[in-house]
Structure formats: structure tokens, C-alpha cells
Amino acid sequence: MSVFRTHFLGRIFATAASALLACTASAASAADANDQNYFASHAVEFPNGIQAYNGVTYVTEIGYRPLRLDIYRDPKASSASPVVLFIHGGAWESGNRQAQGKIADFPSTLANLASKGYVVVSAEYRLNGEATFPAPYYDVQAAIRFLKDHANTYGIDPKRFGIWGTSSGGQLATLAAVACNSTGLSRVRDSSPTTSTCVNTVAIWNGVFDFKAMEPAPKPAQNGHPRSRLLSCNPGFCTNDVLAAASPITYVDAKSPPFFLAHSRSDDVVPFAQSTEFEKKLQENGVPVTTYYVDGLHHGFVSDDPNVTKTVSDELLARTFAYFDKTLK
Prior knowledge:
nine-stranded mixed beta sheet, 11 helices, 18% strand, alpha/beta
């Protein structure tokens, strides 16, 4: 059972009696209460003095569910801390903000990372079946704006902002990092937000950077393929403009932030060439890039041997946050 669930059940049982006393409240008051998220304003305690706020709503688009994020921080930090925003993978149609591949108890992992002097945040976004591209990209932008706009509330230094993503979440995180000054994906709004969505540094695990180069391509009959569902076009009929618009490699220039890229050379879902070609593009534009490439692992750095998977996961986490230490502290 996850730490979040254990703590939440304890709090729910502890507050059940007081909740029953409110049964005589008006229907309107009950409706108001149903719209509130207790755990968004009452922290869960983790080791090393870390507190986590679970399910903080960062945006609600008209006609869609509220989108939430979890915030891990040290409330006793003496000054504002750098922030790292995590964007989960799952082929744009699964996954959640409290899980990452084979890492056991991901919330505890994020809390441990927060104890190293960061505010660590994990955000969800609209999945395939809820909305198509560029909606999830807009969601990541909204999460960045929320954290910058509420920096004082959560002890964040908005000038030290890192983003971290895996697989499909790596595509969204990278796009947010390299397209923040682009007008090509701008939304039509009555009024545009003024908070910048640019970040200072990026870490991506087995990311998707170029849709035109993804192999093997879905067969024409696979209109339900995740990439087809994301881009709203059947395989073989997606225009180059559509593919380019969703591909982070399109937007790389000399102003792009530094990157950490990690990938397995034998990745059986996202080709290793996605990272090497993106690395080349960064280098051509003079953008600093650090890499960690490994052999013999499946997508998500998974081995047939669970012990190897754990060892690699630990090493990957250590390298990722050593990189954030170097670029954010």
C-alpha cells in the first residue's frame, strides 16, 4: 500500500466522527464541501520533515475534469527552493502522477528528492480519450504557470525551474521547454496569461522528440494507436505540419535550456535514435547536453532481472538529481 494511501486512510478514519456531525448541514453546504479537496490543503508527512500536498488543482478547463498536481516540500526551508516538475509517461493515454515505471512507492521517492533541497511536483494532464494534442501540452504549460504564480505559497524560487519527463511525458516536458517562446502552438484566448512558461533545465528519460522519425510506424488499420489518437490523424495520413508541430526537435534553437538525456540502446518502444538525434540537434545549436545511455534494457529501463531494474533505477535517479544539482543550485 502506498504511503499516500496509508496516510490518507488514517486521516479519513480519524475525521469520520466529526464528518458525521455535519450531516444536518444544508444541501448547498454539502455541495460546496464536495467541491473541496481536504488533502490539497492538509499536508501528508514524510520522513526528513517533508510535507506533501496531494491533489492541488492547478487548472480546470471548461468541460473537463480539474487537473491536479502533488507538491513535496520542506516547510522549514530557510529560503525559496528550486522546483522540479515531473511529467509522467504512459503513451499519452495512461499513467498517473504518483507512479513511474518499476519504481516502488514513487511518492516516497519524490519526497526523498525534495529532502535534498527542492520543491518537487508531479502533475497529471489530459489523456487520449479526454482531449487531443495540443491539449496536454497546454496542461503542462498551465502547471508551470501555476507553480510560478504560487511560488510564495509553496516556497519556490521561480527563477530556478527544472522539468523532468519520461517517454510520452518526456515529449510534453521537452515541448514545454523548447517551444515556450514559439507562437506556433499559441492558443486563441480572450486574454493571454503573462507568466512565462520557460524553464531553466530539463531531464528526459527515453523521450519522444521527433514524430516523423518514430519507427515502426503504426499500420493504417491502427487508428486507435496512441500516436494516432494523440494527433487526431490516421497512420500514413498525418501531414508533415502536424507531425512537426508536436515534435520538440522542431523548436530547438540557441535559446533552449540545457538537457539531460537518458535512454536504453535496446529500447523496444521508443527508438534509441530519438535521443541521439535530439542530442545532435541540441549540439548543433550550442545547447549543453548531458547523456546517460545504457545497454540491454527494455523501455523504461526495465530488465528481465528485477534486481538489475532496481539498480539501474537508483543510478538513474542519482544521475538525474546530480544533474539538477549542477544546473539549479
